[in-house]
Amino acid sequence: MILVRTLFLVLCFGLLNSAAAQLRTPSDFEFEREGKKYFYFNSEEKLIDNENNASYYREASQLDNGFWRFNDYFSGTNKVRRSGIKENPNPLFTGDFRGEVTTYFESGEVEELAFYDDKSFQIDDYLLNYENGKTKEEGRYVGGMKQGDWKTYYDNGKVKSEKSYEKGLLSGTVQEYYESGAVKREAEYMILDDQAVKTGEEIHYFENGEIKSRVFFQEGNAQGKHAEYHDNGKVKITGQYDEEGNKTVIWKEFYDNGALLEEKRYDEGVLVMQGKRLHKNGNLAMRVESVEAGGFNGPYMRYFENGKLAETGKYREGKKTGVFKTFYRENGEVKSAVNHITGEKKYFNESGEEISMPHRADEIPEKHKKLIKVINKSLEIPEKHKTINRGVYGFTVTNEGKITNAKVLTSADDFVDAAAIQALNKIEIAPAVKNDSPVEVKNAVVIFFDKESKKYDMVLGNYYVDLEGSDENFAVVEEMPMFKGGEKELFSFLSQNITYPTYAKDQGFSGVVYINFIVDKSGLVTRPRVLRGVHPSMDLSAMYCIEKMPAWNPGLQRGKPVLVSFNLPIRFTLR
Fold it and tell me: Among 24, 207, 320, 347, which one is most buried in terms of CB atoms within 10 A?
C-alpha cells in the first residue's frame, strides 16, 4: 500500500510513554548574561546548544513595552546579520515579528527586507536580494499572504519567473524562463475551493525552444493526451488521462533515437499491464507475466543488452517469491540464487563453483555495523565541542572503494560537521558492483550526536547505484516513499519516540505540528523543518522524533529512486 503524501495521524500523545532520550527544550538553547539573552546558530542558521561551534549569534534586549530588540551577528566579524523586534527573543518562537526586519550579507548589503503588522502578519513590499546587490525576488504581502504580481530573477538580473497571486494562491498566468531569456514553462492557474489549480494547457520547453511536454488541465486534473519529447524533437512519452486526471489506456516511452523503451497499460491510474521493456538496440530488457493493482505477478525475466539472461524469478502481488537467480553477462553462468521464502542465499564464480557472499558496497544492509564502527572510530570531537543534535552527511564511494565528496546534507553544527566530513574522507570500503564491474555510488549516513556518549548512533541508507545523479526534488511520484512496514509501523515508531512536553501539557497547549522533510534516494529522512508549529517545545519534540527515523523505502519515478518532499502532520491531544 502506498503511503499518501498528506498522511494524517491522529496521535493521542498524552497517553504515550516516550523512548526518546534527552528530549530537548527551548531553554537548552538559551544563554543569559548581564540582562541580555543570547542564542547561537550553525552555518545553516539552525539553532544549536554550543556557543563554541557557532557561525552566528543573537543578542536580545527587552524594551519598555515588553517586546525584544534583537540583533543577529556573524560570529567571525561581529557584523550584523539580522535585526528587528520580536515578542519572544527565542528563535524557536516563530511568527512573532513586529515592524521592519532586515537581513544583511556579511558585506553589509541588504539580503532581505520584510515588514510585519501588530499581529505578526507580513505586509507591504517584500524584497530578497543576491549578494551582488541584484534583486532575487520581489512582491507584496497583504495580511500575511502574497498578493498581486511577483517576480524572481537570476543573479544577472534577468527574469526567472512571473507569477500572480490572489490571497496567497496562484491565479492567472505563470511564466518561467531560462537564464538566456527563453521560455521554460507556461501555465494557467485558477482558484477553486480555496485551492490554486491548473487550468488550460501547461507547456514545458527546452532552452532551444523545442517543446518538452504539453498537458491540458481542467479544474486541476490533467485531461486527454499527454506528450513529452526529447530535446532532439523525437517523442519521449505518450499517454492519456481520463476525466478524473488518472492515467488510462496505453502509455509508451521511447529512446531518443525513436526506438521503443517500454509500454504500459493503466486503468484509473493503476498500472494493470507491464509490457516488455527493450534495450536501445532493440533487444529485450525485461519481461513480466502480468501486473495486478500496480504490482508484478508471475514469471519475471531481465536481460543484458547482448541478449543474454541477467535475472529470473517470480513475483506474487508485487513481492519476490521463490528463487531469484542472477547470471554473469558473458558466459551466462549462474551468479547468485536467493530463495525469498527460506532466505537461503548462494553465490557462484564464473566457473560455476559456489563461493561465500561477496562483500559489495551496494548491498550493505541498514543493520550492517562495520562501516558505522569505522566512522565512530574515526570521529574525534573534543568535549567542549560536543552537542546534542543530528547531522546527515552524503558521500560518494568511488569504484576503488574510497569515500570522497563527503558533504553536509543536514547540519548538526559547524564543528561536528567538519569532524564528520574529515572522518568520512579517511575511510575506504569495498566498491559497489554493477554488471560485474566496480562503479561509483552515492549515499548518506545519519549521525545522532549525544554529549554523554563516546560512540554515536547512526543510520545508513540502502546503497544504490546512481549513474545519473539527478537532484530534482519531487512532491508527487509514481511510487511515494513509505515507512518500512507501512502505516502501522510508522504509528508504532511515532508512539514510542514522541513525548508530550510537560510544560506544554501543563499550560494546556495542544494542536497539530506540520513537519516537512525530504526522503532521499536511499530512503534517509533529511532536511526536516517545521511548516507550522504550535509551541516551541512541541515543535522540538516532533522534530526530534522525525530526526530519529530509520531509512524509509524511497520514492520511485519510472522505477528509479528520487528525492521526494513529504509533509507529516503530528497531532498533540490533551487527555
Answer: 24
Could you say which of 358, 379, 407 is where a domain stops? 358
Look at residue 153 in the predicted model and tell me its pLDDT: 98
Q: What sign does the dihedral 323-324-326-331 (CA atoms) show?
A: positive
- Does residue 147 have a pLDDT over 70? yes
Instruction: Kindly state whether residues 394 and 433 are assigned to the same domain.
Output: yes
For the segment 116-141, the average pLDDT, to the nearest whole number, is 96
489 in the same domain as 559: yes
Answer positive or negative: Cα dihedral of 77, 82, 87, 91: negative
Of residues 355 and 10, more confidently modeled: 355
- Average pLDDT over the chain reads 87
Bridge partners (DSSP) listed for residue 390: 448
Number of domains in the chain: 3
Same domain, 424 and 519: no
- Do 422 and 332 lie in one domain? The reply is no
Contact at 8 Å (CB) between 464 and 521?
yes
Q: Which residue has the higher pLDDT, 368 or 262?
A: 262
- What whole-number distance in Å separates Cα of residue 233 and Cα of residue 210? 7
With beta carbons less than 8 A apart as the criterion, state whether 83 and 72 touch. yes
E strands, 94-194, are: 97-104, 110-116, 122-129, 135-142, 145-153, 159-166, 169-170, 172-177, 183-192
Q: Domain check: are 449 and 495 in the same one?
A: no
Q: Are strands 295-303 and 309-316 parallel, antiparallel or unpaired?
A: antiparallel
| Residue 377 shares a structural domain with residue 350 | no
- Residue 291 maps to a domain: yes
Which tens digits make up the pLDDT trace of 47-93?
A: 999 999 999 999 999 999 999 999 999 999 999 999 999 999 999 88
- In terms of domains, do 346 and 375 share one? no
| Structural domain contains residue 417 | yes
pLDDT of residue 438: 80
Which grid cell sits at 218? 481542467
The answer to whether residue 432 scores a pLDDT higher than 80 is no
pTM: 0.79
Q: What does the CA dihedral 195, 196, 199, 205 come to, rounded to 10 degrees?
A: -150
Render pLDDT for 266-297 as a digit per residue (tens, 0 to 9). 888 888 887 779 999 999 999 887 776 557 78
**Residue 503: CATH number of its domain:** 3.30.1150
For residue 421, being part of any structural domain is answered with yes
Angular region, 307: left φ>0, alpha ψ -120 to 50, beta rest:
left
C-alpha cell of residue 89: 527573543
Question: Is 174 part of a structural domain of the chain?
Answer: no
Interatomic CA distance for residues 518 and 43, integer angstroms = 20
- Domain of 383? 363-460
pLDDT digits (tens, 9 = 90+) for 450-494: 888 888 888 877 666 555 556 667 776 767 888 887 888 898 899
Alpha carbon separation from 548 to 28, 457, 528 (Å, rounded): 19, 10, 11
In 3D, which of 98, 103, 149 has the Cα closest to residue 123? 98
- CA–chain centroid gap for 492, Å, is 22
Q: Based on the fold, state whether residues 397 and 325 are members of the same structural domain.
A: no
